[in-house]
Specification:
heterodimer; A: 652 residues; mainly alpha; two-stranded antiparallel ribbon; 2 strands; 74% helix; globular; B: 482 residues; 20 helices
Chain lengths: 652, 482
């Protein structure tokens, strides 16, 4: 089994090395084979791993219902030791992998969705001169993401964590002749690094507290810690800073919209389906630590909720198809954090899964639209694409329905699970979250209507250029659309007569946390139906409002330069957050840099040093005259010195 | 015996090379000689690992009435420093081939002489001999910078010389004082120096003198102002020797005898030293953000990086000390790599001003890849050499003080800011009239980078070999601390 698990990340690494070393000589045909091929193999191996875990798991479910937690942990978890990495006395960090239901789920998402997007990229990047380089980076990304998911301790996870950040940097700035894109790439890397410092300090505190960094040992020790322990609070907050950076939450989210500079498959894979969910995965992985820190949980819940609402409001007023999806991603990640914050770990992971399907689908659909429009991304210049791009339209529609939370598509079930937990936790928070999901429905249908309905608003040239994408791109869309449609089946709640399969599957991972945490509020089915009905009615209204505004009437589309009432302007300018950061962080640091260099360094420190030097020269010149050759004078000085020494000796 | 060969071989080579006339022969001889030297060092490494911890000692009487002896040997820490030196010198020599310096025999002779002095510093087990090699290293460094350097080289080199020489004099005074405090009959042998009995006041003074000498060499804020000028004014080979190897003498000196000799004062003033070092990290990082000269930017980044190493040394924990040792090696490799990249760019475009470059990656993808890998090492991306060092240093510092570690940790953000900025402005974007004719790396130039890149990844992936070699001796140094 260990060999199989090692091969899962090793294959994409191999792909990267081959493509990276021979990026100028390897023919495109080979790249088409190597790039997606290695990921497909990893996916198959992940499936084997999954089935293996599942069968062990079934044994646990059916025959060992009463064994202790530690014993069943043994059954569902397998550790795979590769080689020692850093080992200094008590600090022992091996290169080791951990396979349990949680990492299995992530393995399937990363390699599965990763493979689909790789296939799509073959079509999307067909004419790009950097074809080989693109697949080299993509393979490196999948490798890093798999390390992140498989790591059996925090540092190995951190390797993947920073590795995906690097790949994100390389791929956002893929078209590196454009300095705007390079700026976006750099911004993403630096903002991630701010988070990474938090992660790093969190790891240090874990080590000084538990004397180990391995997941199993840390969690085993943490179980016996008291609720609300101050150290755990600090650890969880620091790790959460890392998650905020990686998963683009307030205040470190502004890099994600800019990251749309990268090729669209990159946005689908890295900035929607996988990398940005790493923060959610990390917190779900550390669930025991988090349930012991209720304050952190509250912080996570509030941050997630604020981000969900804030980003959704921005998405309503954006006109760039990818930017809308980017803000939508930030908002949906916010929902996952809300889920984590109220202890709905399964709900968060469920939403992570369905989101990976429908958001990858939406991004790839957007890519297909952009492809057809010859690079156009402004939805004000689109419209009426329904007939021209039928496959893209149908799949995009499914993605939109899924994300809007309309049953029976996947997004409904996963979002509903989080909302229900939230309601049990706090009524007002539920209201805010529902408001956010109404906004989601509105901006997504606005996007859908403006892109695919009414008349085409672009140039004649674009109209002439319009064409449905080739099968290599539409097939991935269809596969993802199917997943987005039926993904909800993974965890159908009991009131629909479902078996909650995902909850059962993940239960062992969250078992200890569930034992410690406050049990979820039990709701009567009537309440559940009522809440669901209210949300759905709201969503229906939003879909109708959007239809009324953008389909029934001629849509009112203002150019960027048009005057807008203040609140609208504020939101469409993204609340001026970028400008604010520039004002309070970038500019002062640059000013400080200049001040330190020109004033402190050159005028103060260096002058002092030169001053000391000059003084020595001056003293030398002066003291020279004391050398008179007069022996009597020397004697006098010597005796004076001796007296002084004696005197000082007495004093001291 | 190998230890003595390590010192004598470069000396011999540097003398022979003067007799050679043809430039090509000089280069080949220097390269071959330095490779043999590296081979000897590898042999010493293997012998050290396989046989007992015999320290490869060699002792011979010299000025025995004064208690000075030619005692050479290597423990794990010196071994790593010798490996670093003998590894980097052939790389530096090979990288110098692209220039045709006037008086090549003198140039390569001085490099080899420098190698001899540096090796001598790292293998001396006698205080006075250590001091002699320490000063000896300054002479070739001075001439390399003053003869083959850039504009304003005389003034800059003079300042560098006076500055570091002043520091060394403090060390000499402290050393002599220490000598008279050793048990009778006095001796400069390290073991005797460690055994010197000192009052707290004496410890403080000796600590102060040592600290000054070593801190100038490293350099630690605010004693660093000679460094940016010197690095940017020196010829490429000079910058590499200084930044890659010579500054490690300071850190090595701290570990080798400042801590054992004045351990109480070290403990007492550790926090002061760490505060200076951390101030330097933030200060130099912030300044680096706005530098327009690539070499100067790297010079300031180096102040930040070695600041972290110094802070780690004073944290006095096993993790930090191991981090300091391995980061000395990594920093040497990375900064030499960066200086070679800059040298190549400067030679081909005639400038190293960041603002007038751009788009080099379009024309020279191999250079872009190599530059990126070295850059990743220097911004401490996991699985590169830089991460191992910085992770251990920050962890060790965290064990000393969480706040210090958090502030020092800012370096991982800042280094990304200035390094990626430099990379973006020079390598990415569109080409301009300066860069459009730049050619990619030739295969012989790739040969310079291949060993560096291999080491960056090797140390990042399998640091165990290097950590294990140094660990027993790191623990021994820390044993002096209660």
């Amino acid at each position: 089994m260990t060999e199989i698990i090692i091969l899962i990340p090793l294959l994409p690494l191999l792909g990267f090395l081959i493509l990276g070393i021979g990026f100028r000589t390897i023919p495109k045909k080979w790249t088409t084979l190597i790039g997606p091929g290695t990921i497909l193999l990893s996916f198959i191996l992940s499936l084997i791993t999954f089935i293996n875990t599942l069968s062990n798991h079934q044994i646990f479910i059916f025959s060992n219902q009463h064994i202790s937690t530690s014993a069943h942990q043994h059954i569902y978890t397998s550790s795979h030791y590769l080689f020692p990495w850093i080992h200094i006395g008590p600090l022992d960090i091996p290169f080791a992998f951990l396979v349990d239901p949680l990492s299995c789920l992530m393995l399937l998402i990363v390699t599965g969705v990763g493979f689909i997007i790789h296939v799509y990229s073959v079509g999307y990047m067909k004419d790009d001169p950097g074809f080989n380089r693109f697949f080299a980076y993509m393979n490196l990304f999948v490798f890093s993401m798999l390390l992140l998911v498989l790591g059996a301790n925090y540092p190995i996870m951190f390797i993947g964590w920073e590795g995906v950040g690097l790949c994100s940097y390389l791929l956002i700035g893929f078209w590196f002749k454009n300095q705007e894109f390079n700026n976006a790439a750099k911004k993403a890397f630096i903002m991630n690094r701010i988070g990474d410092l938090g992660f790093l300090l969190g790891m240090f505190l874990i080590f000084t507290t538990f004397n180990t960094l391995s997941f199993e040992q840390v969690f085993a020790q943490a179980k016996s810690m008291p609720m609300g322990d101050a150290t755990i609070l600090a650890i969880t907050l620091l790790l959460f800073v890392g998650a905020v950076g990686k998963s683009a939450q307030i205040p470190l989210y502004t890099w994600l919209p800019d990251a749309m500079a990268g090729p669209t498959p990159v946005s689908a894979l890295i900035h929607a389906a996988t990398m940005v969910t790493a923060g959610v995965y990390m917190i779900a992985r550390s669930n025991i630590l988090y349930v012991l820190a209720p304050t952190t949980m509250a912080v996570i819940g509030i941050t997630g909720l604020a981000t969900a609402l804030f980003a959704a409001s921005i998405a309503i007023f954006q006109n760039d198809i990818k930017k809308i999806l980017a803000y939508s991603t930030i908002s949906q990640l916010g929902y996952m954090f809300v889920g984590l914050g109220v202890g709905a770990f399964t709900g968060a992971m469920f939403h992570l899964t369905t989101h990976a399907f429908f958001k990858a689908l939406l991004f790839l659909g957007a890519g297909s639209v952009i492809h057809a429009m010859g690079g156009e991304q402004d939805i004000r210049n689109m419209g009426g694409l329904r007939n021209k791009l039928p496959k893209t339209w149908w799949t995009f529609l499914i993605g939109t329905i899924a994300i809007a939370g309309i049953p029976p598509l996947s997004g409904f079930f996963s979002k509903d699970e989080i909302l229900l937990h939230l309601f049990g936790h706090s009524g007002p928070m539920w209201v805010i979250a529902v408001t956010g999901s109404l906004m989601t429905a509105f901006y997504m249908f606005r996007l859908l209507y403006l892109t695919f309905f009414r008349n085409f608003r672009g140039t004649d040239e674009q109209l002439h250029h319009l064409h449905e994408s080739p099968p290599v791109m539409t097939t991935p869309l269809i596969v993802l659309a199917m997943l987005a449609a039926v993904g909800g089946l993974l965890n159908i709640p009991e009131i629909f007569g479902g078996g909650s399969w995902l909850s059962d599957f993940l239960a062992p991972v969250f078992a200890d946390a569930a034992a410690i945490a406050v049990p979820p509020v039990l709701m009567s089915p009537a309440t559940e139906w009522l809440l669901m009905g209210m949300t759905l009615a709201g969503v229906g209204v939003m879909v109708f409002l959007a239809w009324n505004r953008y389909v029934k009437q001629q849509p009112q589309l203002l150019p960027d330069s048009a005057r807008r009432p203040f609140p609208v302007k504020l939101i469409s300018k993204k609340y001026y957050i970028d400008e604010l950061y520039d004002l309070i962080i970038s500019k002062p640091v640059l000013r400080m840099s200049r001040f330190l260099h020109e004033v402190v360094e050159l005028r103060l420190i260096d002058r002092m040093v030169n001053g000391v030097g000059n003084m020595v020269v001056w003293t030398g010149n002066t003291v020279r005259f004391i050398q008179t050759g007069n022996v009597g004078f020397y004697m006098f000085i010597m005796i004076l010195g001796i007296i002084l020494i004696l005197f000082l000796n007495i004093l001291i | 015996m190998l230890t003595v060969i390590l010192i004598l071989l470069p000396l011999l080579l540097s003398l022979i090379i003067i007799a050679i006339r043809r430039e090509k022969a000089i280069r080949q001889f220097a390269l071959a000689g330095s490779l043999i030297e590296f081979g000897v060092a590898v042999a010493a490494f293997i012998q050290y690992k396989t046989s007992c911890h015999c320290n490869l000692l060699f002792t011979a009487d010299w000025l025995s009435t004064l208690g000075v002896s030619l005692k050479f040997g290597m423990d794990g820490i010196s071994l790593l420093m010798v490996m670093l030196t003998t590894f980097l010198v052939p790389v530096i020599i090979l990288a110098s081939f692209r220039h045709s310096y006037h008086r090549p025999a003198a140039f390569y002779s001085l490099i080899l002489l420098m190698e001899m002095a540096l090796t001598g510093v790292f293998v001396s087990f006698d205080g006075l001999v250590f001091y002699i090699f320490w000063e000896l290293a300054l002479i070739p460094a001075y001439f390399i910078c003053a003869v083959w350097g850039g504009n304003d080289r005389i003034r800059i080199t003079f300042k560098f010389f006076i500055y570091t020489f002043t520091g060394s004099l403090f060390m000499l005074v402290a050393l002599l004082y220490l000598y008279f405090k050793t048990p009778l009959p006095h001796s400069f042998d390290f073991q005797w120096l460690y055994a010197a009995t000192l009052t707290p006041v004496e410890q403080t003074w000796i600590f102060g003198a040592f600290f000054l000498a070593f801190a100038i060499k490293i350099p630690i804020f605010p004693l660093h102002t000679w460094q940016p000028d010197t690095y940017s004014g020196a010829p490429a080979a000079g910058s590499m020797l200084l930044a890659g190897i010579m500054l490690k003498m300071g850190i090595y000196g701290m570990i080798r005898w400042m801590i054992p000799v004045c351990h109480e004062a070290v403990q007492q003033y550790a926090s002061v030293a760490i505060i200076l070092a951390i101030t330097g990290i933030v200060y130099a990082s912030v300044i680096a953000i706005r530098q327009s000269d690539m070499k100067r930017l790297v010079a300031y980044s180096s102040i930040a990086h070695v600041g972290l190493i110094a802070a780690g040394v004073f944290a006095l924990t096993p993790n930090a000390m191991e981090g300091a040792v391995i980061q000395m090696v990594s920093h040497g490799i990375n900064i030499v790599g960066l200086f070679i990249v800059i040298d190549i760019i400067e030679q081909r475009t005639g400038t190293r001003t960041i603002g007038s470059l751009g788009g080099i990656a379009v024309k020279a993808p191999r250079l872009a890849i190599v530059f990126m890998i070295i850059l990743l090492g220097s911004i401490a991306l996991p699985l590169t050499n830089g991460f191992i060092g910085e992770f251990l240093l920050l962890l060790g510092l965290f064990e000393y003080s969480m706040v210090f570690a958090a502030i020092a940790g800012l370096t991982i953000i800042f280094s990304a800011v200035y390094m990626l900025w430099m990379y973006q402005r020079t390598m990415l974007g569109k080409t301009n009239e300066t860069t459009e004719k730049i050619s990619d790396l030739s295969w012989s130039e790739m040969a310079v980078f291949v060993p560096l890149v291999i080491m960056i990844i090797w140390i990042g992936l399998f640091p165990g070999l290097f950590l294990d070699v140094a660990l027993p001796d790191v623990m021994q140094v820390l044993n002096y601390i209660k």
